[in-house]
Amino acid sequence: MLKQNNGRHFVTHGVEAQIRRQLPQWAFSAHSFEVNENISLDDLQKLKLAFEESDVSRTGYIDVKNFGHILKKCLKEPNMGNAQIHSLLKKINYSDQGRISWVEFSTYLLQQYKAKEETVRRRKQVAFNLPATVRDCGHGVTIVNIHSTHDGTVLTVREDGLVCQWSSELKPQRTKHMFKVHRRSKWATDFALMSEYNKLMIGTGDGEIQFYELSSLEPYCQISALGTIPLTLDYSYTGSDNCCFLYGDMEGCVTIILLSTAEDTLRLWNRLPKAENVPNIAIKNAVLSQKVTFVRWKVHHDWVTQ
């Protein structure tokens, strides 16, 4: 049956038990020893001393009778039968001369120990079934960030502006390309969720912060002409319809924008003239509003990435 199918084959515990029931009982009657479990260093020393004491003629060998007596005494195996002793002796001394030396016995134990080590090593290896099945499942474009929503779904945004919503079991539910309406190339740098206002906020490489409806992924408004590229975004709701969002840029600055009556402010920006099909307001005009507080903090001279 194994020859009819290519690839690797494994015997599970259930199948192994079935094979044991079907094979003759004598196939598993031989007694086996585990060096690292059943035989300790003290046991080995006792065995060696017993071998030397039984070798009265000093030939380096003992007969099967003495061999069985040593096993029963030193390894505390009083119920070990003669058939098991003879079977073990044949495994160690295949010439079946009815005698065994300490070198042969210790070599057998060492080989058995190495065999078990090899078995453990092989179990740790990964087995591949061949021929392999090729599946094209890579996205190929960098994901700028991953956020979870209040309902347990997961949202990812790729660098090219592709937004993907995943279920809690990580199955894709819907995708949308945010930048497909633009003629020139645009890329996303980071995004954050404004859950209290059902908005998705994306920073772009064109120095913009764009706001989208979280439920429909439709563009809502944007703040443009930041004068720098927002590399990382964050958002916090401060209560009573007040919130803040902040971004770090390539010039080592952290910009903090505080919005009071944020829902009205966002609705006002949504009614402004559009730029590239998105209602647009420049940052210099946005900060003129009394409902907007603008803070720019020079942290260092390198990129702010988090």
From TrEMBL:
Domain of life where this protein originates: Eukaryota
Range of residues in the leader sequence: none
Keyword Repeat (UniProt): yes
Residue stretches spanning the membrane: none
Keyword flag Repeat: yes
InterPro entries: EF-hand-dom_pair, EF_hand_dom, WD-EF-hand_domain, WD40/YVTN_repeat-like_dom_sf, WD40_repeat_dom_sf
Residue ranges of every copy of the EF-hand domain listed in the record: 42-77
Keywords for the protein's UniProt record, in alphabetical order: Repeat
Protein known as: EF-hand domain-containing protein
Organism, scientific name: Ameca splendens
Lineage, highest ranks first: Eukaryota, Metazoa, Chordata, Craniata, Vertebrata
